[in-house]
């Protein structure tokens, strides 16, 4: 299935795989201002936003954390859970009250290992999101800290 890099799980995964994952989803709520995770922490879960918004941020020494991207409805929060060493590369903070589906990373990795087709689809989905976020981080940091911004030359 070829979906855009920023595709939601609904767009990126075949219905069968989506339904299998959703059987293990847990509905959670986070108040505005709550930190979901910090850079360097153990990446043991991920979320799909139902309502609200979450800022992904990056620690910048000597400065406030730089917001890399704001995530909203149906977007994946957290990519580091899939790739060893399973530590967060960014931080995440709820900018509004958030309702989301939460997934246990160990359980999903085990499912992916047991079903190579599921694993390939999940890896392609998360990898595409991760590539998009890397480009966003680069652009955002250039805009914030480079002498002339990103200049649109990516």
From TrEMBL:
Signal peptide: none
Coiled-coil region(s): none
Limits of the Cyclic nucleotide-binding domain: 9-78
PROSITE patterns: CNMP_BINDING_3 (PS50042)
Pfam families in the cross-refs: cNMP_binding
InterPro entries: cNMP-bd_dom, cNMP-bd_dom_sf, RmlC-like_jellyroll
Matching SUPFAM superfamilies: cAMP-binding domain-like (SSF51206)
Protein name: Crp/Fnr family transcriptional regulator
Source organism of this protein record: Streptomyces galilaeus
